Amino acid sequence: MNKKIFAIALCFGLNTTARAQQFEDYFEDATLRIDYIFAGNHEQQEIYLDELNKTPKWAGRRHNLCDLPLEGNGQITVKDKETNQIIYKHSFSTLFQEWLVEEEATRLKKSFENPFQIPFPKNNIIVEVKLLDTHRNVSCSYIHEVDPKDPLIAQRGYGFQPQSRTLIKSGDLDKCIDIAIVAEGYTKEEIETFYYDARIATESLFEHEPFKKNKNKFNIVAVACESKDSGVSIPQNNVWKNTALSSHFDTFYSDRYLTTLHLKELHNTLAGIPYEHIIILANTSEYGGGGIYNSYTLTAAHHRDFRPVVVHEFGHSFGGLADEYYYDDEFEPQYPKDTEPWEKNITTLKNFDSKWKNLIEEGTIIPTPLSSDEDEIYNKVGIFEGGGYSSKGVYRGTQECRMKINEAPKFCPVCQDALEELIEFYVK
Q: pTM above 0.90?
């Protein structure tokens, strides 16, 4: 092993409990976007550094810098090179890791773009990226150094901002959670339609608790990214569109899974707009969407279920909430039954103490029986079997919830608690 690489790797095994003192001690008010390529198959994965970018302003948290609210399916740890102190942590999930449990990953190797934002450092830093498998073991890691004075760090968003409108302005960047709503598949002539759709998405989000009572903790801006074609690609129908973010249905051959793989283009589009979280609105009436923790929400803006779906998908991308619906088959490789999921709203009972145990009555039956009482359907907290796509061995907190069905009027008490905790983490 190269001695320099070994020395860098060794430092991550030391002094892991160190904490940064103040944001200003280590960071300036700007963003370092690190673009990675995650590649491989179900047997072996690799992480490659692609590009470094600097953008104006830092819209993320300036406190709790060394803590993670959720484990996620991957993590980034940043250390100050000189002091060896951990000065920032971030967790995430990716489409790449979802793909690894697909059958295609047993036959092919693929690569996926994955940009991540961290505060721009004042001095040299050591960055470690690690991916976790479905059993919560590290499957792949990569360590590298970043010199903030590196002349090849691309400067993006300086002297230019995309066309945008502020929908909610509750306070300064460091006091609020900052969301960018981005247009996909809207032509120049349809931009006013996008702004209308963005307002509908915003209204829908703040009709739900705990977002409603915490509305004053959010800033939202709508970013009018123009596409050459109207609509988005639907491969199963042989429909291909030239759009700003190249999104399409049929991700992993699932007809309603709407995603984009062009994440560098997404973030380049937003350069100059301070943001932490992203909602992409697709100009289509086809049903579908997707949400990936600390990556993005993408949803069809003109389907009749637009309102509940955009909130559901934001539950994924912002809240790290799992899907609570399930299929008839009993096995889902994404949630092995011998491992406790990191998501707060499902459990395999391997570590239920870390979930919603404090919300249930002593002696609650497992699995909790279903009820026909409408109030109990949405409000009674128990341990209901079925969730995370599996009908057996995975449990959810209530009979029905926004994370299970579009007809649910709200997030269940378990999801509301999880979202409230996350909001508090970001703003306090």
A: yes
